[in-house]
Amino acid sequence: MIGGLKMYKPYSPEWNRHRYLKEALYSYIEDGIDNDTILQEICDILYERSEQSYQDFAKCNDLAERFK
Question: Which residues on neighbouring strands pair with residue 64, listed in sequence order?
Answer without folding.
Answer: none
